[in-house]
Amino acid sequence: MTRVLVTGVHLLWFLPAFASLPEQINLLERNRDFIDPQLLIVAITAVIPREVFFTPEVFRALWLATMIAGTLALIGFFTRTSLLTLTLGTWILIAHKYSYGDQHHPEALLAIFLLVLVFAPSGQSVSVDAFMRRRGHAISSNPAKEESESNMAMWPLKLAHVLLAMTYFSTGATKLLSGGLQWMNGYTLQSYTFQDAMTRNLPVGIWLSQHYGLAVALSVFTLLFETFFFVSILVPRTAPLFFITGVFFHLGLFATGGHPFFPHIALLLVLLFFLDTSWLRYRLPRKVRAPAPVLASKVPVQ
To answer: What are the residue ranges spanned by the domains of the chain?
Structure first.
């Protein structure tokens, strides 16, 4: 299910928005050389000349192959191969996008998580591969028993949890080291929010930038959330609270500043629903859980 959700978000939103084909072609046609080639791009150009690989024709084929691989990974057909192709295509597209001087980081965790899924039993159950395997066992004279459990099934989620904690802690620590407690004075958040909101025409951000007290409170909240997210690893019971808070935190960033950390939201939701489901097992009191016929028998007949 993690594979289905992540690849679905990747196909429907990530590739069209972050690694769109028109943007890739535009970068190729408007630039004859890379400004700051990323490591993967350097490795590719060391083997294949730039004028041979980095052309609109090749990138159209690359983008199409990535989308096809993502579709096959979504339905779980040749799952590992499809996921690996999707991952490599995604990495090349992202590295190429950031080889012209403008660099960001919202895609990093999702790109790493895709690679991790390649080595996990991602197509073991909900997939075309599993269906074909079960069908083959059914018609076999000596059917093999399909494994329903794996010690490797949870490690991608646990690794994603650790990577999120490292990312948030790095961001919080950077704020403290660069600005100290002054980062929480409210004016910093007001200034950045106003600039981003005006540039992207976001009324919520413009409204927030005019409320000093709220800006101070949100500054303190941001620093506390980012710096202490790692507590969700040390105290697993607190993890769902941190995941839910993180989802609303990034939605707030998008509404006020237009910062599209949707890959983080996707990973937080995946962790919320699949890392530890014990918090979902809400048990009603015994009287409330009484059988329906018993409750119905106590209702007076009119």
So the answer is: 1-134, 154-278
